[in-house]
Structure formats: C-alpha cells, structure tokens
Specification:
Layout: E1 2-5, E2 8-16, E3 22-30, E4 37-42, H1 54-61, E5 66-70, H2 88-103, E6 112-118, H3 120-131, E7 138-142, H4 156-165, H5 180-184, H6 188-196, H7 207-221, E8 231-236, H8 244-253, E9 259-264, H9 277-323
Parallel strand pairs: 4-5, 4-6, 6-7, 7-8, 8-9
Antiparallel strand pairs: 1-2, 2-3, 3-5
Helix pairs in contact: 2-3, 3-7
InterPro entries: AB_hydrolase_1, AB_hydrolase_fold, Hydrolase_4, MAG_DAG_Lipase
Protein name: Serine aminopeptidase S33 domain-containing protein
Biased composition (Basic and acidic residues): 303-313
Length: 324
C-alpha cells in the first residue's frame, strides 16, 4: 500500500524473517527530493510503528529524511503472540537485518544512516549498533531502556520466582506492575488513543517478555562504555518508566567522541508521543537540529573530498602535460 500526504510518500510492506514469520514494515519518504539521510525507527515495548510512531515519522520526513519502521515479532501488525518477546536477540536480529537491507540498496549506499530508538527501542538501537559498530552514523536515543526504573521493577524475591516460572508458563500475563500507559504518557487524549489502538498491547507483561526486558536492560547497564557511535540522548526529568540516572551514566561512560544529552524538566517518559504539543515541539526541534548539523557536516566533508579529488585530477593532468 502506498499513499501521499503533505509531500511525504507512505508505504507498507510485509517481509518474512529467517524464522518464517511475517513482519510488518513501513516507510515515510519525501516525495519531491532525495532523502538527506535515512532514519530507522525502533519502537517501544507494546507499541508499533504505523499509528503510534506516525506523527514522529512524518515530522522527520517533512524535514527531508527517509524514515523506516518495523513492528517486532508479537507487536503491531507483525506475526506472533501479541506482547510476547520470546528472545530479545531475535528482535534485534530482525530489525538489524531489515534496516541493513534498506541501507545497502544501490540508491541508499552513500546516505548517512541513523537509528532512532524510544524506550525499549533505545535498547534495540544500542544492540543493533553493537552488532555492527562501524555501520551506523549515529543514534537518537529517547528515554532508552538501559535500566527499568525501580518503581516499575518487581522486588528481587518476586523476580526470582517469576524467572523460574517463565520456563514453565512463558506466555502467561502475571507480572505485577503499574499500568505503563498511565505513567508513561502525560496527555489524557494520547492515553485514550493508545488504549483504542488495537495494535498496541495492553495486558500485563508476559513472563518471558518481562524476563527478557530485565535481562537486556541489566546487560546494557553494565556495558555502557561499549557505546561508540555519535548519539543524541533525550530523557524527561519526571520519567517513571526508564531510569534517567542511567541515561546520565550512559552519557558519561560511552566512549563516543560525539555525544549530546538533553534532560527535560517536567516531561514524562513518552517524549515523542504523549507530551503537550509545546513540549513535543521542543523535543523535535532538538532532534531536527541535531540531524541538520550532522547533514551539514556530512555535506561539507563530501564536498571537501570532491574538491580534493578535483585538485588531484588537475595535478595529475598538469604533470602528464609537462611530461609530454
């Protein structure tokens, strides 16, 4: 399916992953210009791309960027038991494989490529980067799940019991936790939209899913120093879902030479979809400014490279004329 809205061409396609599952993918491409760069969306837990990430993708595409998204297994319009993550490694592999296939198309090979991960998607983006550390040109990490906030974690005794149970009843929805929608999204109308979206999972976290989220966030928390790509890190000061202190830790410990941290007073977890319009304008202004700065640097570098090539060609031509 393809459609055009405000000079942005939207397309949907189902692909089949290595395990034979149908996964939903979508893209938003500027209609009248070549994309400045490619942006790959990694959505959050229980969310999806085509509806809840649509406003984010369109805002970025209208600025001249090609935007691509994929619904993970068990999420959105993709196959699998809704809300069930049997293996976080599979989520990362599926996303990485799709994003890489788009990046390596002939028309895209020279374009810069950036990951945009929100919440659990921030963890997906960091793990995609770990798979190919030199492949990605940067990442926008929005309240990334490098550690689940203490208020959201069951106590250690409960975690121990649930870990044993997940080997027996992995898909059961019995993890005790607060309603994530209520504490992640500030604007009541947005909460209503998410609850009415049939592609967003609303039940309690399934046992194996909860185990995988705890496993991966714990692993990431202890390997923050391995992050080496340029990144823009955004976190709301009043986030009660993912730990803002670990975002600060990521900023401090990452080996990246090029890193930026923005903390937003009074903002909650859902910075891209869930804040007031005024607050979201601030967040997107920071995202676009960061991308534009990267685009200008990339353009100047390629221009310098071209100028050096012309100088070398002129030097060789003059030398050949001298010798003849």
């Amino acid at each position: 399916m393809a459609m055009e809205i405000e000079n942005v061409r939207y397309e949907e396609e189902f692909i089949v992953n290595a395990r034979g599952l149908k996964l939903f993918t979508c893209s938003w491409i500027p209609k009248n210009e070549e994309p400045k760069a490619l942006i790959f969306i990694c959505h959050g837990y229980a969310m999806e791309c085509s509806i809840s990430m649509k406003s984010t993708a369109r805002r970025i595409a209208k600025e001249g960027y090609g935007v691509y998204g994929i619904d993970y297994e068990g999420h959105g319009k993709s196959s699998g038991l809704q809300g069930y993550v049997s293996s976080f490694d599979n989520v990362v592999e599926d996303s990485s494989s799709f994003f890489t296939s788009i990046s390596e198309k002939k028309e895209n090979r020279e374009k810069k490529r950036y990951l945009l991960g929100e919440s659990m998607g921030g963890a997906v983006a960091l793990l995609i980067h770990r798979k190919q550390p030199d492949f990605w040109d940067g990442a926008i990490l929005v309240a990334p799940m490098c550690k689940i906030a203490d208020d959201m974690r069951p106590n250690p005794l409960v975690i121990n019991v649930l870990t044993k149970l997940c080997k027996i009843i992995p898909t059961w929805k019995i993890i005790p936790t607060q309603d994530i929608i209520d504490i992640a999204f500030k604007v009541p109308e947005i909460r209503k939209q998410i609850r009415e979206n049939p592609y967003c999972y609303k039940g309690r976290p399934r046992l194996k899913t909860g185990y995988e989220l705890l496993r991966i966030s714990s692993e990431l928390e202890h390997k923050l120093n391995e992050v080496s790509l340029p990144f823009l890190l955004l976190h709301g000061e009043d986030d009660r879902v993912t730990d803002k202190l670990v975002s600060k830790q990521l900023y401090d410990e990452a080996m990246s030479d090029d890193k930026t941290l923005k903390m937003y007073p009074g903002m909650w977890h859902g910075l891209l979809y869930g804040e007031t319009p005024e607050n979201m304008d601030i967040v997107f202004s920071d995202i676009i400014s960061w991308l534009e700065k990267k685009s200008i640097v990339a353009y100047e570098n390629s221009k310098s490279e071209l100028e050096r090539k012309h100088e070398n060609d002129g030097f060789l031509e003059a030398k050949q004329q001298q010798e003849s």
